[in-house]
Amino acid sequence: MSSEFAKEQFIVGIQYMKNVIHHHQPNRPQRFALNALPLSVTLTALLALLAIFALIALCVGRFQVDPLQAVRIIASPFINEPVTWTSNEYSVIMNVRVPRVISAILVGAALAISGASYQAVFRNPLVSPDILGVSAGACVGAAAAILLNFTSWYIQIFAFVGGIIAVLITVGIPQLMRKSSNIVMVLSGIIVGGFMSSVIGLLKYVADTDTQLPEIVYWQLGSIAKVNMETLQFTAPVLVIFIALLLLFRWRLNLLALGEAEAKTLGVHLTLERGFVIVASTILTASAVSVSGTIGWIGLIIPHVSRRIVGSDNKRLLPITIVVAAIFMLIVDTIARSVCSLEIPLSILTGFIGAPIFGYLLVHQRRVD
């Protein structure tokens, strides 16, 4: 892919998808929509749905657990509840499914809020969390750790470091060119992502076909099957802190989305504030990918779905995006481990679900326009 071609495609993407974000026209008759409701009402309804799907995720699977029993087990560390469950039920809920539910919520929220933040900063709704090469770099780190026969803990560390290194290279290229525009940054991400993909191909080529290669491929396709409480002790605080930081900063994203000239007129320190959003989103993406592997579509499609619910105001969009992504990830992960005897990688399901949704949004938007 040449630089000129990528630049043209990037500009076309901006023009083509501009109305997806700002799709409300002043002179267009509006039907009743969710974005007419107060944010607190919409958020409360979605949180209630999240709680319902979390309970379903705890109960559904190859080993079924009664919902009331699951609630008793979860509440047992906090209240004096008579033991009415078996040891197998307790182990499945507390040691297997609770970590999966928590990680699904956090990973989905991290990828989605990163995607929404990137789209606001780069002013392009086609941007996703892997635009700066984060996912590809994390894959390289994880593949290297697998080739060295390291444990899953070191695989996560290598994946996180690989994602950060990829972003540092992406950010360093515009600095060497002495150009700091969004287009140059995105093109740098394309370059780094392509290079990292080649490195991944080389590592897969030299990997042992019986043991290492399947593990690399499975990790690339995404899964939270191996997540446990020990993993969450280290990754959950990072995810929660940076999600909270982006939420606190969300009102500034509206200013950054106006464009460089308008933002400077309003007193925005573009380099500092844009850099903060990129760093926070990158750390979130790298942390999520280090836990779950590469999971596609969430950072791209969930912000679009959330805009259909509450509009394009980032003050309303980011909280809704987090909850919608958490619900989506719970549904996908529950399907992945329940529909057949072998667990389906998450990226396969997110692709099957996300691509039609994205196509529907595009077709619907063209009909409205």
Description:
The chain is mainly α. Helices cover 75% and strands 0% of the residues. It is built from 15 helices and no strands. Helix 2 (39-59) runs parallel beside helix 14 (314-338). The radius of gyration is 21 Å and the shape is globular.
In short:
The protein is an all-alpha fold and 369 residues long. The protein has helices at residues 3-21, 39-59, 67-75, 87-122, 134-147, 152-177, 182-206, 212-221, 229-248, 250-256, 260-265, 270-292, 298-310, 314-338, 346-368. The protein is built from 15 helices and no strands.
Helicity level: over 70%
How many whole angstroms does the radius of gyration measure? 21 Å
Shape call: globular
What structural category do the secondary elements indicate?
A: mainly alpha
Summed up, the helix count is 15
Blueprint (SSEs and pairs):
Elements: H1 3-21, H2 39-59, H3 67-75, H4 87-122, H5 134-147, H6 152-177, H7 182-206, H8 212-221, H9 229-248, H10 250-256, H11 260-265, H12 270-292, H13 298-310, H14 314-338, H15 346-368
Helix pairs in contact: 1-7, 2-4, 2-14, 4-9, 4-12, 4-13, 4-14, 5-6, 5-7, 5-8, 5-12, 6-7, 6-12, 9-12, 13-14, 13-15
